[in-house]
Design brief:
Mean pLDDT: 90
Number of strands: 3
Largest sheet: 3 strands, mixed
Order of helices and strands: EEHHEHH
Strand content: 5-15%
Helix content: 55-70%
């Protein structure tokens, strides 16, 4: 998804990278002790949903993306693990 710029916390921008979305959700699912396959499925589903949402936006912040990721994660345990990781970082 080229051309979409994300406004980061310190007000700089960078290109949207769906790999970051996938990796963060995949990691959260693995930390919930799901299999690699199940973690891949969850990460793919969430990434698809977020990509679709990002395409409709003119500009998004990283906070908007995080919020959208949380909304797209259907598994409560994975959502909790994702949120916990955000709180730690």
């Amino acid at each position: 998804m080229k051309g979409k710029h994300i406004v980061k916390r310190k007000e700089h921008s960078e290109n949207y990278d769906e790999k970051k979305v996938y990796a963060s959700v995949y990691s959260a699912a693995l930390n919930c002790e799901y299999s690699e396959r199940k973690s891949e499925d969850i990460a793919s589903e969430v990434t698809k949903s977020v990509n679709k949402w990002v395409q409709k936006q003119k500009e998004v912040s990283s906070e908007d993306i995080r919020s959208n990721i949380l909304s797209a994660i259907k598994d409560k345990n994975v959502a909790l693990m994702y949120k916990h990781h955000l709180d730690v970082c």
